[in-house]
Write a structure and sequence with these properties.
mainly alpha; 2 domains; two-stranded antiparallel sheet; elongated
Length: 118
């Protein structure tokens, strides 16, 4: 298991290594299947108050994509996606400067830079 400071990635807290997002997406998909929510969504989407459920299938697929957010190593431990736009942009350099200036605890609690074009 990585140390807490190793979970600070180029984009901020490492959701891929902790797998929290992937696990929650998996659990929600499981519950949705259990309740056959796809059938309910089709019916409820016809009611104006639940019109947003017409996008249910798109949401379900998105949760499936989020299942893939798993890394065996942290970015600081040579993990993560090699073609990551955040890692390959200048945002990570700004984040590293903030990390050095503020320290790990303040950095984790604060705002971070995301993708920045070269």
């Amino acid at each position: 298991m990585a140390k807490k400071q190793d979970l600070i990635g180029y984009c901020g807290d490492c959701a891929g290594y902790t797998q929290t997002v992937a696990d929650l997406a998996r659990d929600l998909r499981k519950e949705l299947r259990h309740y056959r929510f796809d059938k309910r969504a089709d019916i409820l989407a016809k009611v104006p108050f639940f019109k947003g459920l017409e996008n249910y299938n798109k949401c379900y697929r998105l949760l499936g994509t989020m299942l893939k957010m798993r890394c065996k190593k942290t970015c600081r431990g040579s993990g993560g996606l090699p073609n990551c736009k955040i890692r390959n942009g200048i945002a990570h350099l700004k984040n590293l400067r903030k990390l050095k200036k503020q320290g790990p605890a303040a950095f984790i609690k604060g705002k971070r830079y995301w993708y920045a074009a070269k």
